[in-house]
Amino acid sequence: MLKLCFFTLLSVYIEPSVQLDLSSIPTGGQIPLDDLWEMGKETYFEGDYATSIKILEKALVTYRMMRHVDIACNRKCLNANINKDLPDLDFTKYNDLFVLGNLVAEANCRKLCIEEHPYGVSAQHRPSAKVIEAFQLRQPYDFLQFSYFKTNLIKQACQAVQTYYQAHLQDQSTLNNIDYYKTLDNVTDADFKDLEATKFYKYFVAGVDAYTVKNYKEVVANIEKALTEYFVDHEECELLCYQPFSHTHFRRFYRALAGQYMDYLGCCLSCQDKLNPVVSGYPVQKVVARCYAYLQFAYYQLGKVQMAAPCAAAGLLLNPDDVDAQKNMKFYMESASQNNLSASVHLGPRADAVKFHKHLTDMLQMQKECNEVFDDGDEGTVDEIEDLSSEHVENDVLSDLNEQIMKRIEDRLQNI
């Protein structure tokens, strides 16, 4: 179990001695995101709404650039391997050393990727966690919607307030603002657009709208695209969970690495909630299973039963407690012979659903196993009597590392 956690740490981003950064390139007068955010709020509270708009819009662009770098470099370096950088080192007997080497290789890969990326910058421009959270919660749009209103940019105000509302459904003042804007001349429902909506969201809403009017061809076309985009969004959400390693607790080295990885797991497992779309003011839960439910019914209505059945099985796989999914699957199994459904081909879930389900299941299992091995009981204290096995492992690893380094130095000296 311990080895499983450590080997999966290959994907953890550990910060090297040189601080790494994933924000946008400083070109000339580039202003860090933290400063833009503070300046935007300051000018807003001073009543300089036109200037506040310019600054906050620039901050949003900077934030999107930073996310682009995060995703690109994390994807590129996900499978970094120490053997590629140091092919002459033999890690056969040193599994733990190999894991740590991969962590260093991954960090180095990201450092180089960021430096070479058109949007990459130096470490001092990396925004604080507090500012990143503010942008994740779409707080700039709350300032922008009022600033747009005060500068008579009503259409933009409608878009900004709708964008903010999508992440703050219970905010009554936001609802009041939306109701007020709807009373203004020349304002229509079409003006209330979510500026942060993904392709998945747009296709999903279009598919639901088509389902409402029983246009099943459009349901299939849009929901299939929505699923494809959702899997991309989910992957990118997980890639954004990789963060620079930082010591915030007094822990042993291995336990600190495991804690960092467990934070990463928790972040990844929250991606489903983060990606749940909000339709007509209500968040859609288990949206992937819902997509398969729409598809199975639409395919069935189009007479494509052999395509409908695997969608029904996929929906049941991802939401086994859904009574409707259970009934649908039972129907397809009972009518298999008359619809020429093969148990091995048509009555199993679609491959994309199986892959997604396995990925989530593996992460949940890893989280469970890591939780069983590690806890936070050692933070801040050092007991006089304790299990020193992890300390011995660390000492062994450092000893192995030192031995290999010394050997390489000796080899170089002999060749001089």
From TrEMBL:
Keyword match Signal: yes
GO cellular component: endoplasmic reticulum
Keywords, ordered alphabetically: Glycoprotein, Signal
One Pfam family it belongs to: TPR_leprecan
GO-annotated biological processes: collagen fibril organization
Molecular function, one GO term: collagen binding
Domain Leprecan-like alpha-helical: 32-333
Record-linked InterPro entries: Collagen_mod_leprecan (IPR052284), Leprecan_dom (IPR056585), TPR-like_helical_dom_sf (IPR011990)
Family per similarity comment: Belongs to the leprecan family.
Name of the protein in question: Cartilage-associated protein-like
Source organism per UniProt: Phallusia mammillata
Source lineage: Eukaryota, Metazoa, Chordata, Tunicata, Ascidiacea
